[in-house]
Please model this.
Amino acid sequence: MGEGGKSSGEPGPAPDSPGRRSRRRRKEQPGTAACGAEQDAGPALDDLYQAHYRSLLRLAALLTGNTDTAEAVVVDCFVAMHRARRSLRTCDDALPYLRRLVVARSRSAARRHLPPSGDWSPVVARMPGSADRRSRVPPFESSAVVLALAALPPAQREAVVLTLYLGLTEEQAAAAMRVRHAALRRHLAAARTALRAVLPEEP
Model:
């Protein structure tokens, strides 16, 4: 052959050779598979749900202060991710995308969700049919930590929950909140100061 199409004289790998199989395995690794592919979308979503549902539910619960609201938020986020799966380049993008969704939708849900309130005066408590105060508020919602978090501004609450309760790195937390690293550190420092005043120790 001419110089442009000259063969090296060595045969290429056979169709089922180890070299080709190894390249095929690298292409099929979950970390590099495109989540937009229809055949990969189902299993990837199921794996994400099984592995991360509980941590995402914890995230939403601490951000909204309400477990029922948190469950609805997380389910909606999985539905939204399923619809947007073709826009994700790889499956590695899916979990950060889910976290961003949960943070954003929890922020909106927290504004709509009012903390338990009402007249708990002794007079009302003695009225027929009045429920006991302790039965009105689930233990989670009335816990000192949830109440302290609810008193923080949204950005500070998100910074604390993502880093101190979920154990994300500051870079991961900033990405989930869609803020710069420096902004996250400011929110986190302010939140720590506020929480020290109302909690016996840092979360």
